[in-house]
Amino acid sequence: MPVQPHLLIIDDDPAVRNTLKSILEWHGYAVSVAGTGAEARQWISSNQPDLALVDMMLPDTWGTELVRDLKKTHPNLYCIIITGDASTDTVIDALHQGAEGYFQKPLNMEIVLPKIEALLEKKRLQEEIRQLNELPKIILDGINEAIAIINIKDFSIVSANKVFIRDTGLTEKEVIGRTCYAVTHHLPTPCSGPEHACPIREILATGSHAVAEHVHYDSRGRRSYVEISASPIKDDAGKVVQVIHVSRDITRKKELEISLQEERLLLEKANRQLEQAYNELKQTQSQIVQQEKMASIGQLAAGVAHEINNPMGFISSNLASLDNYLDKLTRFTTFQETLIAALLDEKTMGGLRDKRKELKIDYLLKDIPALIAESRDGAERVRSIVQNLKNFSRVDDNETGLTNINDCLETTLNIIRNELKYKAEVSREYGDLPPVKGSAQQLNQVFMNILVNAAQAMEKKGSITIKTWQEKNYVRVSISDTGCGIAQQNLARIFDPFFTTKEVGKGTGLGMSITYDIIKKHHGTINVESEVGKGTTFTVSLPVAGEAA
Fold this sequence. Notes:
Elements: E1 6-10, H1 14-26, E2 30-34, H2 37-44, E3 51-55, H3 63-73, E4 78-83, H4 88-96, E5 101-104, H5 109-141, E6 146-151, E7 157-160, H6 162-168, H7 172-175, H8 180-185, H9 199-206, E8 210-217, E9 223-234, E10 240-249, H10 251-343, H11 346-358, H12 361-393, E11 401-403, H13 405-415, H14 417-421, E12 424-429, E13 436-438, H15 440-456, E14 462-471, E15 474-481, H16 488-491, H17 511-521, E16 525-531, E17 535-543
Parallel strand pairs: 1-2, 1-3, 3-4, 4-5, 12-14
Antiparallel strand pairs: 6-7, 6-10, 8-9, 9-10, 11-13, 14-15, 15-17, 16-17
Helix pairs in contact: 10-12, 12-13, 13-15, 15-17
């Protein structure tokens, strides 16, 4: 059911008031009356009429003055002046004070009723238009994001919802009409730079939707992040005239992103450290396995040497005794032959000589000393090999002690004699060296790794030169070969674990890594110089005993 329009009649003549009230009520209006300006003001203070009919001549005020006052407190109230004087000045004054029209006495209801109906319809339509105009703002106020309409020409704020105004800390009057950059960032010029990229400028350049992130700092220096989304509003010609500016606080999201990024970097760092620790552990494990193998080989060699020493001892002793016995037997046989020759006849002696010749007794007596001499020489060589095995393994002396580098080199050369003799001629240039403090077994392994690598680097027979000398507080050892050399790009990796230039299955890539670690543990250094096609030189430097760092 439609709402009944409410009219207020303000006239000091009771007859006019009551007559007009009856007519209007009969036509469906709700009507109230007042006889003076004061009564009208008091009544309107607690009521909201749609239209007021105001007599021009009231006992306490002019009707135009009352219209002016009522319009100030109730701008949506329509007012019509009722006057007996319809002069031009009166009409102009009434309209100037805000009246929507006038009626001249005596009232002609055929004119009054249609005029009232037209004014009320006009008011209804204006109210609908006002509500329609306010609808976008009502909708925007219901959105929990800061929204503003901005003029593209001067960046002024045309309209803004409650959230936008609240976030500025200003009133609506202080916001509307000012520039967006002054209100939101307190800047004298439009936004720019990485922390205040301007999406409106991007819209001006592209004509399409734009997004930017802004960094804000409050008076305490606290940082916040805002995402600005701007969409163009175009006129009928397609020209951008305004921009819908939507800002959303993304501080929590941004802080989470930054936190996740920091955690990701920490995780990557931890993964790298874990991978490095794993590689180091793998390297250490491999080196320990390799060193355990060498130690096992050393123990086996020492055991074999010990077991060989015993039989070789009595073999050598027996050969010496056999040589002595043979000498005595030879002298006795010679003496016996002289006696037999004196006692027997020629025929019997001839038979004895034939038998001696048949059995090659003379050859045997001549060859047996040579066989004994060769056997004794072989036994001495076996004894030397056994001693070298013992020296190389040093199972009984694997702790750090005073070591002669020249002896280590010789022991190692004896052990790998077969590895070298078909590949290279070895030249020695040993200097007079003071002892170094270290493990002879480990240093033997260093020199064996370098020398075996040198031999394997030679496609055809070449030469290996070993030099030792003292330089200040260091013992220097250089081992040079005439092998294939090492490519320049591989020199920096030569001591890396598991790096090898050998074919698959022919190298573990641990030999030089173990060599490097042993030298490092002995407080020394190892350097390599190489040229492809010409050869390689390794130089080992070890501190003289008592000079270690």
